[in-house]
Amino acid sequence: EPPILQIDKLRIGQGTKAPIVEQMSLEVRRGETVGLVGESGCGKSLTALSVMGLLAGNLKVVGGTIRLGGEEIQGLSQRKLRRLRGEKMGMIFQEPLTALNPVMTIGAQIAEMVRAHRDVSRKAAHERALELLRLVKIPDPEERLGEYPHQMSGGMRQRVVIAMAIACNPALLIADEPTTALDVTVQAQILELLASLQREENLGLLMITHDLDVVRLVADRIVVMYAGSVVEEGAVEAVLDNPRHPYTLGLISARPTGSFAAGAPRLADIRGSVPAPEDRPAGCVFRDRCPYAQEVCATTRPMLETGQGGHAVRCHFPVDRQTDAPKELAQ
Ligand code: SF4
Ligand code: MG
């Protein structure tokens, strides 16, 4: 069975400007959760939007392939893409309010979603809406169907958005920072819900987050993105317990809870931020911030090389091969 999502050498550009995402490859299989992490501005959300066919403005996929269940989606008509989107994938965004219509009841919105993709009666769509509210564990679902978004809490709204995203039994669910806008106790409940839906419905779940604790909690595999491409990926434990890319090490040690790797450079100590596409250095794009950089890093872009257990890293001098502490931090 082909992966439900297969992105290969994706390139996203904007007119004649430098590409924002390039050499981006990623796979999600049914029944697995993949955590896609990186600082904001790394291209995580753009990658997800391109899969949904939702790139805005003059942003465009200018290279590479995106396959859904083995089927290439580039070049499909808007109509076909819209259908595929409803049937094969659902997406959840950070702020549930933006995904909901403020002047429609919850029940009407979910039923409309169901009817947009399935040829069913009003009554059947209503039944399905009720069933979905139960599935996302919203209490008193009959009453809730008649409520408007503003009558619900943020957590309940996010449950409604999740219900809409899985309305047509998609094989792939993409969640972009789904808990960032919620308070901590609600965050945990939503994560738990997503994890249980993923198991029960055998979904492929792509969880986009900047929070490594979320990844450790829910993901099987992790993909670390920096400045538009993947710098490290592998099984969650392998990568988080033994990071090989200096950027991943920085992310881990920058965590507030990060007791990891005493003496390792903290990302907060590594000056600068994710460079804009037109400002990316030649050679390795992390070079300006990397405490391990050597001469070759300025001239030659490292390839993503896969090692044991599928643990891949894009670095000339992976961390676990360093014998000395980094000589100095980048300025
Ligand atoms: Fe640092 Fe060089 Fe590795 Fe890039 S290739 S992350 S600059 S050591
Ligand atoms: Mg984002």
Structurally, the number of domains stands at 2
Q: Can you tell me the CATH topology of the largest domain?
A: Rossmann fold
Overall morphology: globular
| Rg, alpha carbons | 21 Å
Helix content: 25-40%
Ligands present: iron/sulfur cluster, magnesium ion
- Please indicate the percent range of residues in DSSP E strands (runs of 2 or more): 15-25%
Please give the CATH class of the largest domain.
Alpha Beta
Characterize the largest beta sheet: strand count, sense, and whether it forms a barrel: 8 strands, mixed
Q: Note the run of SSEs as H and E.
A: EEEHEEHEHHHHHEHEHEEHHHEE
In short:
The protein folds into two domains: 5-219, P-loop containing nucleotide triphosphate hydrolases (Rossmann fold), CATH 3.40.50; 223-321, no CATH class. Helices cover 33% and strands 20% of the residues. It has helices spanning 44-52, 78-88, 96-99, 106-117, 122-135, 141-144, 154-165, 184-200, 212-218, 236-241, 246-253, 295-299; strands spanning 5-14, 21-28, 33-37, 59-68, 71-72, 89-92, 172-176, 204-209, 221-226, 229-235, 305-306, 312-313.
